[in-house]
Write a structure and sequence with these properties.
By secondary structure, the protein is an alpha+beta fold. The chain contains ten helices and 21 strands. Strand 16 and strand 17 form a beta hairpin.
Length: 413
């Protein structure tokens, strides 16, 4: 009885220091047309001090560095308008922190910047959940400031690198066995590995490549205490070394629960090499795509905050999260680069929900970018969210209907 009462009080305390829910969610629409230019760069964002690592267990403190963490950036300019695609070696960022980071990017509208966390489980905890057993936040504000400076430097360098460009798009299929698995639903994962490469218009020299697939970067398991970009860093480093230009990795439908089958440090190297080979297969069959214009549509989405874990973490001031009449404020988006279409989601998208989004929007080739500008946890269909098989994922989601609300916001844009 006491435990039940305590739980009720804890969840009800979500209401402390709330803001009012707006009558209409904020929206952003933008478009540009003209000549295509692309620039790219990366910046090191590796901490040199001890950090709580995000994911897996509480109080997992870093003891060394396995591989450097990066902010990788592709700036795409069409006519006079520009966007920035940023791949970040981190578990995830909170919406309020993302807005603060974007405020330092001179010349870019907030809505034209997409910050996508790779979701590595071997980087500092910038959400705040994985500190000292719930008694302290895992979020280091000084490290967050370092990340902000790194992103600002990389975006500035990428913009300075802008060159007239052409784009080509290709894909290859992940093997059904041996590399990636779904631990909750055997065999259910998005097999497509997609490459969008920009090359110099006149010389065909590679400038940058967007690399996209859906998988948790957790080759290093919970026993690991070294900072690492996991397979994402290995893939991006091998990509550059192979002469394909700057790599920017953005994760896809990784949620509930798509994970590598390889483990330990040697598994990271093997997975990086296997994905490099897949990417090169995708390039070999890539087709030119026309990008005479681009457009962005974004809107806020408010998700009922029903998760005991998230509510408790906010009450204990472990996570810096505003609440609006019991709701989290997050964001969804649609990006079109010529004939390429992308949906951006704020959490770990379940493969089934991603497929429903493609079906309901009548866009079978829609790319799904997860963990963009926010980490709200798992985004699942309500049927799966209520399934006992997904008990853990349900506890790490705003609520059982969070995925449905995100889907409705996107399809009804």
């Amino acid at each position: 009885m006491a435990a039940a009462l305590g739980s009720l009080l804890l969840v009800s305390c979500t209401g402390i220091f709330q803001k009012s829910l707006p009558k209409e969610p904020a929206r952003y629409e933008w478009s540009s047309l003209g000549e295509l230019s692309v620039g790219a760069a990366e910046a090191d964002i590796t901490p040199e001090n001890e950090q709580y690592l995000g994911g897996f267990d509480l109080n997992r403190v870093s003891t060394g560095i396995h591989s450097r963490l990066k902010a990788r950036v592709m700036v795409i300019k069409v006519g006079s308008g520009k966007i920035a695609l940023i791949g970040l070696d981190n578990l995830g960022l909170q919406r309020e922190d993302v807005d603060w980071i974007k405020s330092g990017l001179y010349g870019f509208a907030n809505g034209n910047v997409f910050i996508a966390s790779s979701h590595t489980h071997a980087a500092p905890d910038l959400v705040g959940l994985w500190g000292y057993y719930g008694l302290s936040s895992g979020r280091d504000r000084e490290y967050l400031a370092l990340v902000r400076r790194g992103i600002m430097a990389a975006v500035k360098a990428a913009e300075a690198d802008l060159r007239p460009a052409r784009m080509r798009l290709g894909s290859a299929d992940l093997p059904r066995e041996g590399l990636v698995r779904n631990t909750n639903k055997d065999g259910v994962f998005d097999r497509k590995f997609t490459v969008l490469q920009a090359v110099e218009r006149d010389t065909e020299k590679p400038i940058a490549s967007l690399l996209h697939m859906g998988c948790h970067p957790e080759v290093f398991r919970r026993s690991n205490s070294e900072i690492s970009a996991d397979f994402v860093g290995e893939l991006c480093d091998q990509w550059r070394a192979a002469g394909h230009g700057q790599a920017v990795f953005i994760n896809g439908a990784l949620g509930a629960m798509v994970t590598p089958k390889l483990h330990r440090a040697e598994g990271i190297v093997k997975m990086g090499a296997a994905l490099l080979q897949l990417g090169e297969e995708a390039l070999a069959s890539a087709k030119p795509i026309s990008v005479p214009d681009m457009e962005v549509h974004r809107r806020d989405v408010y998700l009922p905050m029903r998760s005991f874990g998230l509510s408790g973490a906010r009450l204990l001031m472990l996570i810096p999260r505003n609440v609006y009449d019991g709701h989290l404020r997050s964001t969804v988006g649609y990006l079109r680069l010529g004939e390429l279409e992308v949906a951006t989601l704020p959490g770990e998208t379940e493969p089934g929900l991603a497929q429903r989004l493609r079906s309901d929007s009548h866009r079978p080739n829609l790319l799904i970018f997860s963990l963009v500008d926010d980490e709200v946890g798992y985004l699942m269909s309500e049927r799966d969210a209520r399934d006992p098989e997904f008990e853990y994922e349900r506890s790490m989601s705003p609520g059982v209907d969070a995925g449905e609300k995100v889907l409705s916001a996107l399809v009804g844009r």
